[in-house]
Design goal:
5 helices, 159 residues, 4 strands, 4-stranded mixed sheet, alpha/beta
Length: 159
């Protein structure tokens, strides 16, 4: 059991697929056996917002596709102990750009961004390596990401 909270920057309109994200994340987490009783928040935003975050937290003054902010704190409530895994921020402006670059539909790209953010929240890192079109990943995180995406290939967020 996990808790997934999905929101969108207040000046943006919810995409019609917005309510499908939580179910996808529950499915992704169910395929990662060590990820249980986690609380994760996901914020969808635009390029200016994620650029500001990227600049403030990574000293990179440019937009990016996804950022993860690991928390790691634990708390207990009437349902038991929980891990505040952290926050995933995704730029809706970058979604079609990335999909075009990787020559995939936006559904496949959104799943990649969500899984990528999820793995970062759980301590995985890929160093300087990034997914490149036509090149197999070498680091553990990106291999896990790609294996998980194969298992989730039939899941639909964006119809």
């Amino acid at each position: 059991m996990n808790r997934i909270y999905v929101s969108i920057l207040e000046n943006l309109s919810e995409p019609e697929w917005f309510n499908n994200v939580e179910a996808f994340m529950h499915k992704a987490l169910s395929l990662l056996p060590d990820f249980d009783r986690e609380e994760i928040s996901i914020l969808f935003c635009d390029d200016p917002y994620i650029q500001q975050l990227n600049n403030n937290f990574r000293n990179i003054d440019a937009p990016t596709d996804v950022l993860s902010f690991e928390n790691g704190e634990e708390y207990e409530d009437e349902e038991g102990k929980w891990l505040c895994a952290g926050d995933i921020v995704i730029s809706l402006d970058m979604l079609p750009v990335n999909a075009s670059y990787f020559e995939v539909d936006q559904n496949a790209e959104l799943k990649r961004l969500l899984v990528h953010g999820l793995l970062h929240l759980n301590g995985y890192d890929h160093g300087e390596e990034h997914i490149e079109k036509g090149k197999a990943p070498e680091c553990e995180m990106l291999k896990i990401q790609e294996d998980l995406l194969i298992k989730l290939k039939d899941e639909i967020i964006i119809k």
